[in-house]
Design a protein that fits this description.
This protein is α/β, with parallel strands linked by helices. It has two domains: about 1-30; about 35-135, Glutaredoxin, CATH 3.40.30. Helix content is about 30%, strand content about 25%. The chain contains four helices and seven strands. It has helices at about 45-50, 65-80, 95-100, 125-135, and strands spanning about 5, 15, 35-40, 50-60, 85-90, 105-110, 115-120. It has a five-stranded mixed beta sheet with strand order 3-5-4-6-7. The chain has a two-stranded antiparallel sheet with strand order 1-2. The radius of gyration is 14 Å and the shape is globular.
């Protein structure tokens, strides 16, 4: 069964093909690979509801969050089996509270909207990849 994903640029719902590069049918923005998408309190549940996601709970003032950001960018650009999203905890307190994001950076791994695992702190890339293999 194909995953349905919303375009990070225009919000259009798109069905992801089983293989190959996916682009938005409306604006042609790449749907897999590239950059992590920004999620908010308003679109969080809908965005992570289908497929495998790693959500980075972060804040602009957080030094370790800034340290791990390039690693998340690299993973988002290189992996097509999982999508990456970022949630600013200061701007989205409802979702941050719901997922008990008390220590950041916090990576929460989701499969079809269900939390499968967590990684706390600015860990190296290999630890994130190990968590993806373990939980997703």
């Amino acid at each position: 069964m194909s995953d349905i994903v919303r375009c990070p640029s225009c919000g259009q719902a798109n069905r992801l093909p089983a293989s190959g590069k996916a682009v938005c049918g409306k604006c042609k923005t790449p749907l897999t690979g590239g950059h992590p998408i920004d999620v908010t309190d308003a679109n969080f549940a809908e965005t992570i509801g289908n497929g495998s996601f790693v959500v980075d709970f972060w804040a602009a003032w957080c030094g370790p969050c800034r340290m791990i950001a390039p690693v998340i960018e690299e993973l988002a650009a290189s992996r097509t089996d999982v999508r990456f999203a970022k949630l600013n905890v200061d701007q989205n307190p409802r979702t941050a509270s719901a997922y008990r994001a008390m220590s950041i950076p916090l990576l929460v791994l989701f499969k079809d909207g269900v939390e499968k695992g967590r990684v706390v702190g600015a860990v190296p890339r290999n630890k994130i990849e190990a968590a993806i293999r373990q939980y997703l």
